[in-house]
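Re: the 226-residue chain
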Amino acid sequence: MIIKAVIPIRKGSQRVQNKNLRPFADTTLLESKIKVLKKAGFFDDIIVNTDSEEAIAMAEANGVSWHRREPYYASSACSGSEFFQHLGIVTDCDVFCYCPVTSPFVSVETMMKCKALYEEKMQEGCDCVSTVSDVKEFLWLDGKPLNYDKENAPNSQNLPDVKALNFGFTMVKRESLIKNRNIIGDNPLFVTTSGMESVDIDTPLDFYIAEQIYRKVILEGKNILD
């Protein structure tokens, strides 16, 4: 079973300028992700999929593979479904691992847990394992509550157990990725992450907070919960 990790990097991110490659404490988000994937040690290849020459140079400097993404698949005209399917098509493997740099704190232990669950359950039809976060929020859509009765509101801990994909780490059968045009397969299983591992960098504030966490926890070895 050939397992490959793919790190998607698009040049010129829209909401956080150059977030993937700009300085992040003593490193960059891309270099930090490469380091943890190497430490996991079970990937047959680690591939930076990108339209950025700077990212390609960084991949080479860190001893991993790269794939130069075609312009359309790095553009806003490309839908998420087209993008996911294309990643599967250009990555020759049995199992595809989606590893975005915007989730900088996904641990080796969580990756190993996902791998063990995938291997344990694949004979039962499991074709995907993905990280998720618990959502205990009072959700509304179109003027109506989604997950509670506003006239009989529960305590927040008693809200339904809703899981949200956090895209921290996903293992999916390549055939399913291409067929479904999505990193979530037909028969997914989920591994819940919390705290640091659920951090997703999407805004300038997210980037700032994640960098401060990295400095305190990774560089200084402090427990931010103390």
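The two ends are 42 Å apart (CA to CA).
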